[in-house]
Task: structure prediction
Amino acid sequence: MVDCFNQARYSPGMATPARRSPAGEARQRDAERTRQALIDAALVEFAAKGREGARVHDIAARAGVNKQLISYYFGGKDGLYDAIGERWQRAEAEFAPPGMSLEDMAVAYLRLDDETRDIVRLWAREGLDHPHGENIPAPDPDVVPPEILDLQQRQADGEVDPEFDPPYLLLMLMALSAADVVMPHQVKMFTGLDATSPEFRRRYADQLRILIRHLTPPPS
Result:
């Protein structure tokens, strides 16, 4: 926001787990492929139709498997939706690891692979389907989201001007990273470029870097 298989833990004093047979390993690989195929298919369906609009029959058909496997592997459509979020969190940890500069991090979110674009469409559709945030639980006033903590630390380190309010700055940065997906028609209108083109990505990334640099306070 899933570890698919639990690994047995054992100490030297415990019996060593039996080694899997080749057939067992093949079944495990098949199960993992099925899980990933369902997540891939669900991402496309959820991005196009929303959580409520997507149908398990259509997800399973796109994945080429029996729809009963959605319940078997994920406990239902909601579990499958959560698995998409968990996959995305793992991806974020790889392309935007801790310690990355804010400039590099902002550009990292501009990747134009199909999965990333569908993730952005999915989150945008969540907002369209729930314009008042009624699908979001009330925030705990005693818990600060890690993204906000990160911006606060960057302010303390002098990377971001303390004049910015971190929650609002975060929203602006998120909007900047999603512009090519949620406003492709405006991209075409204002730049003459296709929002999915490498040329637009390069130019937009260059301009985004310039903008992020201006978040740093001037030397005193």
